[in-house]
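Incident log, support desk, overnight shift.

02:14 A customer reports that sequence design results differ from what the structure should imply. Their input is reproduced verbatim below. On-call engineer (initials T.W.) acknowledged and began investigating.
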């Protein structure tokens, strides 16, 4: 499978982030969390070599957000290691479009509707290509409105 230039850059970014957090525990510093709800669009990263990828965006609500990642609720399990695309509008940055890698899944109590129970999963993803300016904006915003975890 041959990767294009953008896909190679993304792969390098993923490998660098994995090294920082897995091989080098010193990089496991927790960023300040912004524990506010934001509506965010997500979808599975559009890898050209996988024709079954959905072009549709799904809306999710964040549980918390930081300069290093995002935690949101979703009605489906997303496998660990999956690359997601995020498109969000935040108070500290106009339009944020970035990629993240799913790191953790938490099964929540099902949401009850009048007809059925809907499964809810907490999905934690680590940003892998967040622009430096946006990362700094998120850090600044978190200092004002966030909390350390």
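02:41 Re-run completed on a clean worker. Output:
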């Amino acid at each position: 499978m041959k990767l294009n230039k953008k896909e190679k850059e993304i792969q390098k970014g993923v490998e660098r982030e994995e090294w920082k957090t897995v091989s080098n525990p010193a990089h496991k510093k927790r960023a300040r969390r912004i524990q506010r709800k934001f509506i965010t669009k997500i979808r599975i990263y559009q890898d050209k070599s996988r024709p079954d990828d959905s072009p549709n965006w799904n809306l999710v609500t964040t549980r918390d957000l930081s300069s290093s990642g995002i935690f949101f609720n979703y009605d489906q399990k997303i496998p660990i290691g999956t690359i997601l695309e995020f498109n969000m509008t935040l108070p500290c940055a106009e339009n944020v479009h970035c990629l993240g890698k799913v790191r953790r899944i938490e099964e929540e109590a099902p949401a009850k509707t009048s007809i059925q129970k809907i499964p809810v999963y907490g999905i934690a993803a680590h940003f892998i290509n967040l622009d430096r300016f946006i990362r700094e904006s998120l850090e600044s915003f978190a200092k004002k409105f966030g909390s350390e975890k």
